[in-house]
Amino acid sequence: MARPTLLTWLGGLGPPGPLDLDELCACFLRACRRSAAALREARSAGLDRSLAGWRATLADAFRTVLRAPVATLEVVAARTSLEVLWQRLHDGLPERPDIAAVLVARVCADALDEAVGHRFVDCYRRRGRWRLAPGEPFPVAELPLRDVFGRHLTTHPDVRDLPIDRTTRLALAPHADGVELVVDLDAPLAAPGQDAVIAACLPHAHPARELAFDPDPTRGQFFGVRPRDEAAAVAAARELTRRALAAGASLIVFPELGVTAAGLDAIAEVVAGKDVVVVAGSRHAVVDGAPRNVATVLAGGQRWTSAKFNPFVLGDLVEGIASAPAHVVVRGAIDGAGRYAWSLAVLVCKDFLSPGAHQALVAARPALIVVPALTERTAVFEADAVGLTGATQATCVVVNQADPPPSVDGVPLPLGPDSPAVVIVTRPVPWALSEVVRRADVAPPACVVLRLRPAAP
After folding, report:
1. In this structure, what is the dihedral angle of CA atoms 268, 270, 272, 277, given to the nearest 10 degrees?
2. Which CA distances in Å does 288 have to 46, 99, 160?
3. Mean pLDDT value across residues 276-300
4. Residues 23-33: tens digit of each pLDDT
5. Distances, alpha carbon 253 to alpha carbons 63, 265, 435, 448, 449, in Å
6. What is the distance between the alpha carbons of residues 169 and 333, in angstroms, rounded to a whole number?
7. Phi, psi (5° rounding) for residue 2?
8. 162 or 420: whose pLDDT is higher?
9. What global pTM score does this model have?
10. Which terminus in the chain has less CB density within 10 A, N or C?
11. Alpha carbon distance 315, 338 (integer Å)
C-alpha cells in the first residue's frame, strides 16, 4: 500500500472548510469506522496502548489551537506534533500504512474529546438538527448513574466493548436497518434521585373484552382500537394517575392503546404543575391524514409524541397504521453545568424488538427506555430488556396490558414460563437486574408501584 502524506490523508477525511468541533472529531471517528478491522488488529497487538502519551500531548496542543467554535482539518496538523506521530507510526509499520493511519485517527479523536469534548453539546445544539443520518455525530450523555444506583453497577459497556467509533463524549449514528436516530437535547428532564418511584398504571382488566376495534378484512387490516366504555376508561386513567402521584411517582407509565385522547387530557389535568414524567401509553389516531399508533409523553408542561413503525399482526389482520418513518427518538436534558446528563427513549411495543431500533439504542445509550405494550407474549421483551441494560446501562421499563390467565370455575389454571408480564423493569445493578410483575399477580385496574432503585439485599 502506498504511503500518503498527512495532509493528503486529512484532505480525504472531510470537507476543507470550517467544521464544528464535534464534526471535526467525527471525521476521525468515521475513519476508525471505515478501518475497523485494522484498528481491531492494532488493538489486539497492543499497539494503541503505547500511544497514551501522544493523546495527552495532542490534547494539550488542541486546547491552545482550537479556541474558536469551528476549525478545519488542516488546523489539527498546524502547530501540533501530529506530523511527527504520523511519520513515526508509518516508519514503524512500513508494511501496514492502514494500521498507522487508523491509529492516528483514533488518537486524534480521543485527544479532541479530551481537549474540547465539553463543547460538543453546544456545537450539536447550535446546529439544531436532531435527525441523524448514519455517520453523523451526536453527544453521548454523561449519566450520573452512581448518584442514582450507587457504586456497584453491573455493566460498564465502554470497558467491555472498547468502541471503535465513539469517544467518551461523542458517537456516530449507526447504520441501523433503515431506523433513523433522533437525538433532541431540549427536553425538560432531570436525573431522578435514589428514591424515585415508578408507577405502572393498568386501566383494563380484560383488554380482549374491554377494547373494540374496526376490522377491514378486504384490506387485511384493523385500526381504531378503543375502549368500549369511553367514560369508564377516562375515569380509570384519572384515578390511576392520582394513585401514582399519591405514591410519590416521578415516572408514570400506561400501556399501549391504554389511553384515549380524552384520557390523555384527563391525565394532563391531574399532573399539571407536578414534577413528573408521564408516558401516557399510546392510542390509535389519525395524524395529518394518516392512521398512526402514537405514544405521548407529558413532562414539564410539554407534550411529545412518537409514532409506532412496526405494526402488530392479529390473526389474519395487520395493524393498519401508515408507514411512519422508522425513528428512535432520544430526548435529552442538559443540566445546570451544561452537561448532557439524562435521556429518555419511548418505543411502542414491537418497535422495541426491531433489530434496527436495538442498534440505535445501543449507539445512543439513553438513560431510560420506556415501552408501552399490548401483548400476551412477553418473554422476548424480558430478554431484550436485560440485554439492552447490559449493553447500555439503561433502565428499561415495559408496561403491558394482557388478559387474565384462563380459569375453570373461577380457579386460574397453572401457567408455564410464557405467563405474560404486565411490568418489566431492568436496571444496571446486580441485586435488581430484572424485576417482573406477572398478570396473574395483579387485578387491574391497578397502579403497580416500584422503586427505581430497590434496596439491596
Report:
1. -70
2. 55, 51, 45
3. 96
4. 999 999 999 99
5. 45, 15, 16, 10, 11
6. 15
7. -70, 150
8. 420
9. 0.94
10. C
11. 50
